[in-house]
Amino acid sequence: MTCKAGVATASHHRWRSDLRRHGNPPRVWSKPGKGCKLHLANMKRLHLFEFEDQPWLPGFLRDAMTAYLASAYTIAPIPQLWAKEISRVIQVTGHQQLVDLGSGSSGPTPLVVAELARLGHPVTMTLTDFYPRPFEGSAAIRYWPRPVDARDVPEELGGLRTMFAAFHHFDEAGAARILADAAARRMPICIFEGTSRTIPAILSSLVIPLLVLVLTPRVKSLSWQQLLFTYLIPVLPVLISWDGLVSHLRTYSAAEMLAMAQAIPQPGYQWRTGEIALKEFPVGLPFLVGWPVPPTA
Ligand SMILES: C[S@@+](CC[C@H](N)C(=O)[O-])C[C@H]1O[C@@H](n2cnc3c(N)ncnc32)[C@H](O)[C@@H]1O
Question: What ranges does the record give for the region Disordered, renumbered to this chain (predicted)?
Answer without folding.
Answer: 1-28
